Amino acid sequence: MSADVIIPASLLPRDGRFGSGPSKVRQAQVDAVAAGGRSLLGTSHRKPPVKALVGSVREGLAEFFRIPDGYEVILGNGGSTAFWDAATFSLVRERAAHGVFGEFGAKFAASTAGAPFLASSLVTEVPAGQVCLPDVAPTADVFAWPHNETSTGAAAPVRRIGDPGSLVVIDGTSAAGGLDVDISQTDVYYFAPQKNFGADGGLWLAVLSPAAIERIELLAASGRWIPPFLSLKLALDNSRANQTLNTPAVASLILLANQIEWLNAHGGLAWATNRTSQSASHLYGWAQANPAATPFVENPSWRSNVVGTIDIDESIDAVQITKILRSNGVVDIDPYRKLGRNQLRVAMFPSVDPSDVALLTQAIDFVIERVAG
Questions:
Q1: Residue 300 per-residue DSSP state
Q2: Are 325 and 367 in contact (CB under 8 A)?
Q3: b/e burial code for range 255-272 (CB count within 10 A of at least 16 → b)
Q4: For residue 123, what is the enclosing H or E element?
Q5: Residue 373: what pLDDT?
Q6: Which positions of the chain have pLDDT values less than 50?
Q7: 3-state SS class at 361
Q8: Is 332 left (phi over 0), alpha (psi -120 to 50) or beta?
């Protein structure tokens, strides 16, 4: 059937990429990679051209997030998956407390729970589609949860909890750059660049408070064995020299630097969050008005503005919808595989034009009429 349904051009988004990561990359970013190829690609990451590139990323993010005095931006190889293990070694002194409301929060909780040198992790968990913060426990010295759960499209508040000596560690992977955040309410706000920042995976970035830096240095000097690749102390030292411990993907850094420059030129975080809010208004408004669609996240205050999950009536096969859309150039709106729902998942990162989200809903309506009929 997918080969037979042709969606009118007037209903199709101008750009059909709505993937939740890797995400849409703007043409200007691709052009930046081509333009920077001769001076940046194929040269050492410890030489001035690449170090200047890393420096521009760190400075650009500091401006974008309006980081407080004393906070620092650091980066390393391996993506958020690697950062969970790095945080386990370099941020948790004795015990972590986690808020788990989806796949990615659960993965960080599993990292700290499996560490033989830590006390058992404290996990507060709710079903997918809901939101929770960790229970405040005096024995925990790290409180961690995702700002945005990529797997479910639920967004949590970011605010300080726990005793003054504890750290608030926030996974901003799919939130950073598209959801508002007060960095002063965190000690560590970490993310990968393949979502709102339109780059490739394999890199992590983090904004650290003075308290987090002190904890990193304390644990590095404690005698705890920390693999060099997972040492946040080594990442901190190298970042201060505008480099990474290991060779980075320079092309990804170019994509990232260009995206940060674009975001800051348009008004920074305030502009980006207004843009994602417009997209979310289109998507959720359509779902609430459509008898065949329902926002998966029931509580409106928890619905993410950067990743929207929409349940489709069981009488209509969502897989068939995505196949037809893909054959018409609209891609990657499949649900998270482990969630197992008859669902569509739409990324609404700043690179996605809000008008394209509005057109996407029209295209979906066109397909539903044919599938249901």
A1: G
A2: yes
A3: bbbbbbbbbbeeebbeeb
A4: strand 122-125
A5: 61
A6: none
A7: helix
A8: left
Q: Which CATH architecture has domain 9-25+268-372?
A: Alpha-Beta Complex (3.90)
Residue 43 pLDDT: 87
Residue-wise pLDDT tens digits, 236-252 = 999 999 999 999 999 99
Say what the pLDDT of residue 3 is.
56
Dihedral, 193, 175, 123, 113 alpha carbons, nearest 10: 0
Give the DSSP per-residue string, 175-214.
TTTTS---GGG-SEEEE-SSSTT---SSEEEEEE-HHHHH
Give the separation between CA 83 and CA 81, rounded to whole angstroms. Answer: 5
The per-residue pLDDT for range 125-144, each reduced to its tens digit, is 999 999 999 999 999 999 99
Q: Tell me if 188 sits within 8 A of 168, measured CB to CB.
A: yes
Q: Are strands 72-77 and 203-208 parallel, antiparallel or unpaired?
A: antiparallel
Structure confidence by residue, pLDDT tens digits, 58-73: 999 999 999 999 999 9
Domain spanning 27-265: CATH 3.40.50.150: no
Query: Are 347 and 23 in contact, with CB atoms under 8 Å apart?
Result: yes
Using left for φ > 0, alpha for ψ between -120 and 50, and beta otherwise, residue 340 falls in left
Distance of CA 128 to the CA centre of its chain: 17
Burial 121-153 (b: 16+ CB within 10 A, else e): bbbbeeebbbbbbbeeeeebbbbbbbbbbbbbb
- The per-residue pLDDT for 36 is 80
Type of residue at 143: F
Residue 56, judged by CB atoms within 10 A of its CB (0-12, 13-18, 19+), counts as middle
Other Cβ atoms less than 10 A from the Cβ of 224: the count is: 12
Q: For the chain, what are the domain ranges?
A: 9-25+268-372, 27-265
Q: What is the DSSP string of 27-92?
A: HHHHHHHHHTHHHHTTS-TTSHHHHHHHHHHHHHHHHHTTPPTT-EEEEEESHHHHHHHHHHHHT-
CA angle 136, 137, 140 (to 5 degrees): 110
In this prediction, residue 2 carries a pLDDT of 54
Secondary structure element (H or E) that encloses residue 231, with its range: none
The amino acid that residue 42 corresponds to is: G
